[in-house]
C-alpha cells in the first residue's frame, strides 16, 4: 500500500484535520502523482457536511488536483516521471459502455464511475477513494490530464472542476459572438464561466447577489452587472439573455431568473443546492424556454478545456493557502468571501503531524 497524508473530516460536524492513511498499490494502467496544488470546490463543502447524503467518513476532499507524475504502471505510455499532470472529479470508469466510449465517463452506464473521493473504487480493490487535500494520489492514467507547462501551476488546479464544469455546457451550446450570456453567482464556477464565455466571444452579464463584486466582474471581462437583489433591475432585464448559467450553491428562486431569458433561451443549471429545485411550469412554457443542466465534463473534453485555457491564457483568480487554513477557507467560501478560488499549497502538509 502507498502511504499518504492529508486532511480529513471524521464526521459531518467536525473540522478537517491531519490524517495519515493508505492508498491502493499502482496497477499496470495507473499513475502515482505527487500533489502540488489542490483547489477548494464548494462541492467539497457540500460533501464534507453530507448535504447531498451518503458521505463516507473519514472523507479526504479535493478534486481539483495538479502535481507531478512520481511513478507509472508497466502499461502506461501516456505519462512519464516528472510530467505535470491534473486530476479532476473522476479517477476510473468501466471504459466499455457507450457513455464511457463517447467521453461521458461521468455517466458510466455500468455505474462504475469512480469519483476522486467519497467513492467506492469498484474498478480496483473496492476501497474508499480519498481526494486531493493530500500529498499524493493514484489514478487510472486514462483519467489523468496533461497540464500545459505554460500555465501558472500555482493557479491551474481549479480548471479541473470549475473550469470544465463551465466550459462543457458553454461549448455544447455553441456560445459565441452575438450571444448574450448571464452568469448567476460570482464564485469559483461563476468567475470561470465569465472568463470562458468572454473568450468564446459572448457579451457577458454578471448576475450577482453581492453588489460589492461589481468592479471585479468588470475586471474578469463581464460587460454588464445585474444586482440580483434589485427587483427593478431584474424586471428591466426581462427577456434579455440567450443563455443563463446558474452557478449558485444555495437554494434560490429559479423562476425569477428564468424570466430574464429570451424566447427559446437556455437556462443551464450547474450549481447543486441541497434543496430540490422548485420551478413553476409557466416559467419555462412562456417563451418555450429550455431548462437544462450539466455535470462536469468528459476526460477528453477536460483536456480540450485545458488546451483552450492555455491558448486563451485563461486562469482562475486564486488565493493560495496552507492546508492548516482549510477550515477558515471553508467558512469564507460559505460567506461568499473568496476571490475567487482557494488553492491549497500541498507542500504545507509536511509541516503537519510532526
Ligand atoms: P462558490 O465559490 O461558493 O460560489 C457560489 C456563489 O453562489 C457565491 O459566490 C454567490 O455568488 C452565490 N451564492 C451563495 N450563497 C447564495 C445565496 N444564499 N443566495 C444567492 N446566491 C448565493 O461555489 P462554487 O465552487 O462555484 O460551486 C457552485 C455550485 O456548483 C455548488 O453547488 C457546487 O457543488 C456546484 N458544482 C457543480 C458541478 C457540476 O458538475 N454541475 C461541479 C462543481 C461544482 P454571488 O455573491 O455573486 O451571488
Ligand atoms: Zn468541484
From TrEMBL:
<keyword id="KW-0479">Metal-binding</keyword>
<dbReference type="GO" id="GO:0008106">
    <property type="term" value="F:alcohol dehydrogenase (NADP+) activity"/>
</dbReference>
<dbReference type="GO" id="GO:0008270">
    <property type="term" value="F:zinc ion binding"/>
</dbReference>
<dbReference type="Pfam" id="PF08240">
    <property type="entry name" value="ADH_N"/>
</dbReference>
<keyword id="KW-0560">Oxidoreductase</keyword>
<dbReference type="InterPro" id="IPR013154">
    <property type="entry name" value="ADH-like_N"/>
</dbReference>
<dbReference type="InterPro" id="IPR013149">
    <property type="entry name" value="ADH-like_C"/>
</dbReference>
<dbReference type="InterPro" id="IPR011032">
    <property type="entry name" value="GroES-like_sf"/>
</dbReference>
<comment type="similarity">
    <text>Belongs to the zinc-containing alcohol dehydrogenase family.</text>
</comment>
<feature type="domain" description="Alcohol dehydrogenase-like N-terminal">
    <location>
        <begin position="27"/>
        <end position="149"/>
    </location>
</feature>
<dbReference type="InterPro" id="IPR047109">
    <property type="entry name" value="CAD-like"/>
</dbReference>
<dbReference type="InterPro" id="IPR002328">
    <property type="entry name" value="ADH_Zn_CS"/>
</dbReference>
<feature type="domain" description="Alcohol dehydrogenase-like C-terminal">
    <location>
        <begin position="188"/>
        <end position="310"/>
    </location>
</feature>
<dbReference type="Pfam" id="PF00107">
    <property type="entry name" value="ADH_zinc_N"/>
</dbReference>
<dbReference type="InterPro" id="IPR036291">
    <property type="entry name" value="NAD(P)-bd_dom_sf"/>
</dbReference>
<keyword id="KW-0862">Zinc</keyword>
<protein>
    <submittedName>
        <fullName>NAD(P)-dependent alcohol dehydrogenase</fullName>
        <ecNumber>1.1.-.-</ecNumber>
        <ecNumber>1.1.1.2</ecNumber>
    </submittedName>
</protein>
Amino acid at each position: 500500500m502507498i502511504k499518504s497524508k492529508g486532511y480529513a473530516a471524521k464526521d459531518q460536524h467536525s473540522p478537517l484535520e491531519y490524517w495519515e492513511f493508505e492508498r491502493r498499490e499502482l496497477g499496470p494502467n495507473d499513475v502515482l502523482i505527487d500533489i502540488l496544488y489542490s483547489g477548494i470546490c464548494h462541492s467539497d463543502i457540500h460533501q464534507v457536511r453530507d448535504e447531498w447524503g451518503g458521505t463516507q467518513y473519514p472523507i479526504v476532499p479535493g478534486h481539483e488536483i495538479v502535481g507531478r507524475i512520481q511513478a507509472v504502471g508497466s502499461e502506461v505510455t501516456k505519462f512519464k516521471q516528472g510530467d505535470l499532470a491534473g486530476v479532476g472529479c473522476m479517477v476510473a470508469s468501466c471504459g466499455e459502455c457507450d457513455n464511457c466510449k463517447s467521453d461521458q465517463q461521468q455517466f458510466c452506464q455500468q455505474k462504475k464511475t469512480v469519483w476522486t473521493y467519497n467513492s467506492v473504487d469498484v474498478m480496483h480493490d473496492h476501497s474508499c477513494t480519498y481526494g486531493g487535500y493530500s500529498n499524493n494520489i493514484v489514478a487510472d492514467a486514462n483519467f489523468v490530464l496533461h497540464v500545459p507547462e505554460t500555465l501558472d501551476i500555482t493557479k491551474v488546479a481549479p480548471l479541473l472542476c470549475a473550469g470544465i464544469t463551465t466550459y462543457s455546457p458553454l461549448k455544447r451550446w455553441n456560445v459565441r459572438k452575438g450571444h448574450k450570456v448571464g452568469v448567476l453567482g460570482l464564485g469559483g464556477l461563476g468567475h470561470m464561466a465569465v472568463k470562458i464565455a468572454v473568450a468564446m466571444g459572448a457579451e457577458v452579464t454578471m448576475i450577482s447577489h453581492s453588489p460589492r463584486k461589481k468592479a471585479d466582474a468588470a475586471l474578469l471581462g463581464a460587460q454588464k452587472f445585474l444586482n440580483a437583489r434589485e427587483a427593478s433591475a431584474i424586471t428591466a432585464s426581462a427577456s434579455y439573455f440567450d443563455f443563463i448559467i446558474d452557478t449558485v450553491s444555495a437554494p434560490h428562486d429559479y423562476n425569477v431568473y428564468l424570466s430574464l431569458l429570451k424566447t427559446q433561451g437556455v437556462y443551464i443549471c450547474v450549481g447543486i443546492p441541497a434543496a430540490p429545485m422548485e420551478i413553476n411550469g409557466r416559467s419555462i412554457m412562456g417563451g418555450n424556454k429550455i431548462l437544462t443542466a450539466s455535470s462536469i465534463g468528459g476526460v477528453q473534453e477536460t483536456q480540450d478545456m485545458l488546451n483552450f485555457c492555455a491558448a486563451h491564457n485563461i486562469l482562475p483568480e486564486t488565493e493560495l493557502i496552507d492546508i492548516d487554513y482549510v477550515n477558515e477557507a471553508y467558512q469564507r467560501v460559505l460567506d461568499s468571501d473568496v476571490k475567487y478560488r482557494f488553492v491549497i499549497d500541498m507542500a504545507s502538509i509536511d509541516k503537519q503531524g510532526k
